[in-house]
Write a structure and sequence with these properties.
Elements (H helix, E strand, L loop, with lengths): L1 H22 L4 E7 L2 E2 L11 H9 L3 E14 L2 E9 L11 E4 L8 E5 H7 L6 E6 L2 E11 L7 E2 L2 H7 L7 E6 L5 H12 L5 E5 H44 L1 H9 L4 H38 L9 H18 L1 H8 L5 H4 L6
Parallel strand pairs: 4-9, 6-8
Antiparallel strand pairs: 1-2, 1-10, 1-11, 3-4, 3-7, 3-10, 5-8, 6-9, 7-8
């Protein structure tokens, strides 16, 4: 049970982290507050001050700032949202699930289109489409079609976007931390810079990832506590079995005593047997749990990433050693009480 949940939880957590890394490709997002709720590109014309991006980029704790610019234009005669990621490599720094084509092809004269818009416009990877904005019209090629929920609308090269939307400001700033900078330092850098610019709001993907991690860790502790009852029952069962075995093997133990084995060493034999039984059960149980945990994660989450939490799995197997020793106490005491005289009769307890 513990091994199965550990694998399922680690796999679901790894999948969520991968999805968040794709959908939220930065540690922090900074955007203007609109309609009382932070909604970037909400159509009210509000933008992030350009000086804020410059200040963040100058901070040594910040590894990079991506300036997301958006505008309402048209493609193929239909209205679409056009976006550009200034300072980012599309397909690497910002990405989305690709339905058709390749995001690496997005560049001057080539765009990515959301699946819904591609279907509405009747275009696919390799097709040409005319995209227009306040600055005019540009004919571009569709390099990739991406799934819904990622980069929607039309994602254009920054140069093409600037020609279509002259003077467009930053709708969102995506901030990544520099290498070796911890979360607290980066948070201080972002909040310190934002404090001088009223009307903007900060969203933290790093905090969301940490929150998910704490949630799964808490649930794991609860599962371990609940499974603890099953572990106690297992220990009592193993202890009873080893104690009965010691009674049935009294003749064997008496012979060992007659051959010179001390009481302590005889108790050690039972302790070793308890550990072998416990570790064997733990290894088999964890093996079955890993398989079912992985299958459960794959069945529960689309495109699940199977992850094996080796530290927790090793801890479960390692815990089998003291459990086996605890289960062997009664059997070891019974074996140690066998006297040398019992070698002929097989009766325990003779001296």
């Amino acid at each position: 049970l513990i091994g199965g949940y550990a694998v399922a939880a680690a796999s679901i957590q790894a999948t969520l982290v991968q999805v968040m890394a794709r959908e939220l490709p930065a540690d922090y997002a900074v955007f203007p507050v609109a309609d009382g709720v932070g909604r970037p590109g909400s159509g009210d014309g509000r933008r992030v001050p350009g000086a804020l991006a410059e200040r963040l980029a100058e901070d040594p704790r910040v590894g990079g700032v991506v300036r997301v610019r958006t505008g309402r234009g048209s493609a193929g005669g239909a209205g679409v949202e056009v976006s550009a990621y200034v300072g980012a490599d599309v397909g690497v720094d910002v990405s989305s699930e690709v339905v058709e084509g390749d995001l690496a092809g997005v560049g001057p004269g080539a765009v990515a289109v959301g699946a819904g818009d591609a279907e509405r416009l009747g275009v696919g990877a390799g097709d040409a489409v005319a995209v227009s904005g306040p600055g005019g019209e540009r004919r571009v090629r569709v390099a990739a079609v991406v799934a819904e929920g990622g980069m929607g609308g039309v994602t254009a090269d920054p140069g093409d976007f600037a020609a279509l939307f002259p003077g467009a400001g930053d709708a969102v700033l995506l901030v990544r931390g520099a290498g070796g900078v911890d979360g607290a330092e980066l948070r201080g850098a972002v909040l310190g810079a934002v404090a001088d610019f009223p009307g903007v709001e900060v969203s933290s993907a790093a905090d969301q990832r940490a929150q998910f991690s704490r949630l799964f860790d808490s649930v794991f502790v609860v599962v371990v506590c609940l499974a603890g009852a099953a572990v106690v029952i297992a220990v009592l069962g193993a202890a009873n079995t080893l104690a009965l075995s010691a009674g049935e093997r009294a003749g064997e133990f008496a012979l060992l005593r007659a051959l010179g084995l001390s009481r302590g060493a005889l108790g050690g034999v039972l302790a070793a047997e308890g550990v072998v039984v416990s570790v064997t059960g733990a290894v088999l149980g964890v093996g079955v749990g890993v398989v079912f945990g992985a299958l459960g994660a794959v069945a529960s989450v689309p495109d699940a990433v199977v992850a094996l939490p080796w530290v927790r799995i090793s801890a479960v197997v390692g815990a089998a050693v003291p459990v086996g020793l605890a289960a062997s106490v009664l059997g070891a005491r019974s074996a140690a009480s066998v006297g040398v005289a019992g070698a002929g009769s097989g009766a325990p307890g003779q001296v």
